[in-house]
């Protein structure tokens, strides 16, 4: 059996040519500074007030510092960096739990708010740590043996107790997908366990067999169109993890790699979600401007293997992005040492004119293929039990020059409430803060039964549109609510039209529009100056409809780093009507200035 697919530090030809200037500069700044220390009181906060980040931030910072030190040690073989790695490894081995406290079931099983070390929970965090230690053992094994004999045995002991034994002995893990609910935890954890088993286990065949069984379950769950209902951001920690695991299986074992033809569509998913520049269609819990530190080399590798030139071009458009420790140590090492990736020429993202994903009922359309210039439209149907669901059936996004103007806010920082019974008390998860109607005072409800119906898509040179009935997403008796969203390429206008059965007894009926940028009122409409200097747009609606604006200040960095200081919800009162429309046109006569530094 081979080990992991990267050169060890003993291969001086390989590592001497690694360009890690920025990483080493950050590593130099770490020296002499105390290591980050996640504390018990911070872990307990998950149960006390729902705060996750108080423990997670120092835990992640510790791992990032260790990854920086590993690269510095591999490039230089300097003893001070090897000592830094030894310190970081020992700290991880001494850390009571590798599981993120928000995931641990110790309270339910043992009544404890702190990890039960005799009953470790195998989650994403434990997988990330054991995989990091496996990569360290691979790259710096001989250096660790020479400078700290015995530490590699400690790594193997902790991997056995915290990961291998729980993985084999406890087969009720929810992320196995045995109940049919398969999501991104499955390939994320299985790929980490596989990495560790290949490097750290003396007889890994049984574990590898279980990994293959679990991955098969995930791969079988992928729809024919390759869409990920968790959205673009979670593709990297779902489908991409599965692709990386398949790479490793072929490299490190005698198992033949399965035919990837069935994965062709999911390899295309990232560029099909691309709006332009740094912006992506951010359905579910994703950010509209997600972090750029993704393993583009993994996408490029899969695209080359499958023969998808567009997916490869999208990956190669990020060829000059600096490799980052935030992507994880294994991904960082491969970004620095994969010869094919390092030799790849930069390219332009393909930006297809139309994308239709029937499994999630998502349509993306732009004025022309190959450019983000002009208007763009994204609209979704689907249902309200999707993974990382927001109650957003029928919601839409409109872009100007690839920049969202009518937007999906995304999600705030995760807390305990995010994945509990209070999820839909969070404003970003509620339909009233998406571009959907509030019908007779009622917002959409969560659940598989709350879904779009009568979905029809049309894509022609002249226009692309999606028509659907939204009424099924609301717990309101009787009404129908037909929405049609269209990008008219000839007229260069986006038009969203709604018709519904009236009267609607109860509270007010409103059309909600969430916009980003500077908003100024016009006579039956508004003018919006978008972010990033995109061309302004004018949004109009029928005369006589009363409109109000509600400003939502943003103090959560997961939101403010994307949208700036505020979002604005435009509320159109259509209670006295049975139909309405909005149009969006570019105001090309007045150049956009984007947002000022004070607005970000």
Describe what you observe in this structure:
It is a single chain. The chain is α+β, with helices and mostly antiparallel strands and 600 residues long. Helix content is 35%, strand content 19%. It contains 19 helices and 21 strands. The protein has helices at residues 12-16, 21-30, 40-48, 53-76, 79-94, 106-110, 124-147, 151-169, 185-200, 205-221, 232-235, 239-252, 264-267, 269-272, 296-306, 309-316, 329-337, 339-343, 557-563; strands spanning 274-276, 279-280, 354-357, 362-366, 375-380, 383-384, 396-400, 403-406, 437-438, 447-451, 453-459, 463-469, 481-488, 493-500, 510-515, 518-522, 525-529, 537-540, 546-553, 566-573, 579-586. The strands form 5 sheets. The chain has an 8-stranded antiparallel sheet with strand order 11-12-13-14-21-18-17-16, with no helix packed on it. β7 (396-400) and β8 form a beta hairpin. Residues 592-600 have low confidence and may be disordered.
What does the secondary structure layout of this molecule look like, with pairings?
Blueprint: H1 12-16, H2 21-30, H3 40-48, H4 53-76, H5 79-94, H6 106-110, H7 124-147, H8 151-169, H9 185-200, H10 205-221, H11 232-235, H12 239-252, H13 264-267, H14 269-272, E1 274-276, E2 279-280, H15 296-306, H16 309-316, H17 329-337, H18 339-343, E3 354-357, E4 362-366, E5 375-380, E6 383-384, E7 396-400, E8 403-406, E9 437-438, E10 447-451, E11 453-459, E12 463-469, E13 481-488, E14 493-500, E15 510-515, E16 518-522, E17 525-529, E18 537-540, E19 546-553, H19 557-563, E20 566-573, E21 579-586
Antiparallel strand pairs: 1-2, 3-4, 4-5, 5-7, 6-10, 7-8, 9-15, 11-12, 12-13, 13-14, 14-21, 15-20, 16-17, 17-18, 18-21, 19-20
């Amino acid at each position: 059996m081979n080990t992991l697919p990267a050169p060890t530090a003993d291969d001086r030809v390989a590592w001497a040519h690694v360009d890690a200037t920025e990483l080493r500069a950050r590593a130099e700044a770490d020296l002499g500074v105390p290591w980050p220390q996640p504390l018990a009181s911070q872990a307990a906060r998950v149960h006390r007030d729902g705060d996750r980040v108080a423990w997670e931030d120092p835990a992640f910072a510790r791992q990032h510092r260790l990854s920086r030190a590993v690269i510095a040690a591999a490039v230089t073989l300097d003893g001070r960096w090897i000592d830094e790695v030894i310190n970081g490894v020992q700290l991880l081995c001494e850390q009571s739990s590798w599981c993120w406290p928000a995931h641990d079931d110790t309270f339910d099983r043992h009544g404890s708010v702190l990890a039960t070390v005799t009953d470790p929970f195998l989650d994403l965090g434990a997988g990330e740590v054991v995989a990091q230690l496996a990569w360290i053992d691979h790259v710096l094994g001989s250096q660790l043996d020479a400078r700290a004999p015995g530490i590699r045995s400690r790594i193997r002991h902790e991997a056995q107790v915290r990961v291998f034994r729980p993985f084999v002995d406890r087969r009720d893990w929810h992320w196995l997908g045995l109940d049919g609910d398969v999501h991104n935890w499955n390939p994320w954890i299985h790929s980490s366990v596989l990495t560790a088993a290949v490097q750290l286990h003396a007889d890994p065949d049984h574990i590898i067999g279980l990994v293959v069984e679990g991955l098969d379950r995930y791969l079988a769950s992928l729809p024919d169109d390759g869409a990920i209902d968790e959205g673009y951001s979670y593709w990297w920690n779902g489908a991409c993890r599965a692709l990386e695991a398949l790479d490793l299986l072929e490299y490190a074992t005698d198992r033949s790699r399965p035919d990837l033809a069935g994965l062709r569509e999911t390899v295309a998913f990232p560029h099909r979600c691309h709006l332009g520049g740094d912006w992506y269609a951010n359905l579910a819990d994703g950010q509209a401007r997600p972090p750029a530190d993704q393993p583009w080399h993994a996408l490029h590798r899969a695209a080359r293997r499958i023969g998808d030139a567009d997916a490869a071009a999208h990956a190669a458009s990020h060829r000059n992005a600096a490799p980052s420790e935030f992507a994880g140590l294994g991904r960082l090492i491969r970004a620095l040492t994969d010869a094919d990736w390092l030799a790849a020429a930069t390219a332009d993202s393909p930006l297809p004119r139309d994308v239709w994903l029937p499994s999630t009922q998502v349509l993306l359309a732009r004025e022309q293929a190959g450019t983000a210039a002009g208007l763009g439209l994204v609209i979704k149907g689907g249902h309200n039990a999707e993974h990382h669901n927001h109650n957003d059936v029928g919601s839409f996004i409109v872009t100007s020059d690839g920049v969202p103007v009518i937007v999906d806010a995304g999600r705030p920082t995760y807390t305990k409430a995010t994945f509990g019974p209070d999820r839909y008390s969070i404003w970003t998860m509620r339909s009233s803060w998406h571009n959907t109607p509030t019908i007779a005072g009622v917002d959409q409800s969560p659940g598989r039964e709350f879904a779009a119906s009568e979905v029809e898509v049309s894509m022609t040179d002249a226009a692309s549109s999606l028509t659907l009935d939204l009424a099924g997403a609301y717990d309101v008796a009787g009404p129908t609510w037909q929405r049609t969203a269209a990008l008219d390429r000839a007229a260069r206008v986006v038009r969203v039209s709604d018709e519904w059965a009236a009267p609607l007894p109860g509270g007010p009926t409103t059309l909600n529009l969430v916009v980003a940028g500077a908003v100024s009122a016009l006579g039956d409409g508004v003018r919006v100056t978008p972010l990033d200097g995109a061309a302004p747009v004018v949004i109009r609606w029928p005369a006589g409809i009363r409109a109000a604006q509600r400003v939502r200040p943003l103090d959560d960095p997961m939101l403010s780093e994307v949208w700036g200081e505020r979002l604005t919800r435009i509320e159109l009162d259509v209670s006295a009507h049975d139909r309405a429309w909005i149009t969006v046109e570019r105001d090309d006569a007045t150049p956009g200035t984007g947002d000022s530094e004070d607005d970000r």
